Amino acid sequence: MTTETDGEIELEYELDDKPPWLKSLLLGIQHVAVMIVPATAVAYIVAGAVGLSAADTAYIVQMVLLFSGLATVVQAYTVGPVGARLPIVMGTSFTFVGAATSIGASAGLGAVFGAILVAGFVVEGLIGWQFERIKPFFPPLVTGLVVVIIGLYLIPVAIDYSAGGVGASDYGAMHNVGLAALVLFVSVVLNLFTSGVTRLLSTLVGITVGYAAAVAFGLVNFAPVAEASWFAVPRPGAFGFAFEPVPIVTFAFLFLVSAMETVGDMSSVTAAAGRTPTDEEFRGGLFTDGLLSSVGAAFGAFPVTSFSQNAGIVNFTGVMSRHVVGVAGVILALLGFSPKVGAAVTTIPSAVFGGAVLLMAGMVAASGVRLVFLHTDLDRRNMVIVGVSLGLGLGVATRPEALQGLPSAARTFFGEPVIMTALTALVLNTLTPGEQSPLFDAAPDETPADSPTVAASSED
């Protein structure tokens, strides 16, 4: 993968810059505000589906916040080979909701956490360990398309949130659409027509204004805050463990999706600096995905992975500082120790969050488009790859029922838009002659070291 530095956006703070503490705190809170609702929503959805008590549900939410924070800090600062030293915010992805719900309801949460513990470490650990070998198969054309599809398939989710949330009795009500529009309007206006700290915190200000409006109209329920305790301690094996083949294989597929998403999100973040991630960054980021997911499962947390909307914030604000994201990670971890504080944050209405996610999803897709345009010649070959990959990815995203005749495992695998887009782009790019194919038209410095052509080319 190229590491060219042309085409970067104007950065307010670069990777290793340290903004003043107050500004870092506010920028970190902005990252937390954008991701905390979907991260905790996964826990609420699964807990409701398997019939957990309010206390057990609150505990899972607590663990999701705690391990999201720990994984975010590790991504920013690293622990040995684990971590990318990039501004990657981690959280629980909706990728795992379907499997966790169905397996949890039929086989119990012990089977879910047992499968996560095994699959996270094995699948993403192996991919990260061997990423240097498989890197040529993921040029900017492939990773850029993964970034694009991540952004595009998040847009319907953002619209659902903007309408009040799927299944809500007031779905599509005027007050929900109005709140989402208010957040979107304030965020865009501040970003485009102001400067300094106001522009940098435009998304946070938009969410704050939307939340204040929701409170004023009586749309916020503070009951969960009163019911939550102030402090709770993590408990290893809180729901037990069961190691069953089908759940393990299912989650192995989903961790492959998670790895694809992480590769795409990391590419989206570094695209702000006009480059793609290095081997070390990819390897450390994938290690974090797998290892922290496995460790979290031991305490009752669902898998953690990179959050695309936060990659969008980096591109939207021009703040690439990993120290800002480190602050966000500490905040998340602290929330994980205090269910009451976490409950207060999750009172943000879905519609308020939807306005912010809609903006971030669009920015993620746009950063993927830029990644493709910067490093790819859009000739006939590459246009076909782009068209087929996005067509199939959006196809299964918008019409998942089209695959209902497939076996369950195949339906789970091919029904994921990221997998469908990534595999299509991977196969077509690999097997079709072209400069980004690892099998054809290799650059001279990619020729095996023991080949006589290396010496010849180095003498020219």
TrEMBL record:
Belongs to the nucleobase:cation symporter-2 (NCS2) (TC 2.A.40) family. It comes from Halorussus aquaticus. It is found in: Cell membrane. Residues 437-460 are annotated as: Disordered. The keyword Cell wall biogenesis/degradation does not apply. It is a multi-pass membrane protein. Pfam families: Xan_ur_permease (PF00860). InterPro entries: NCS2 (IPR006043), UacT-like (IPR017588), Xan_ur_permease (IPR006042). The chain crosses the membrane at residues 25-47, 59-79, 111-129, 141-159, 171-193, 200-226, 238-257, 324-345, 351-373. This is Uracil-xanthine permease family protein. PANTHER family: PURINE PERMEASE C1399.01C-RELATED (PTHR42810), URIC ACID TRANSPORTER UACT (PTHR42810:SF4).
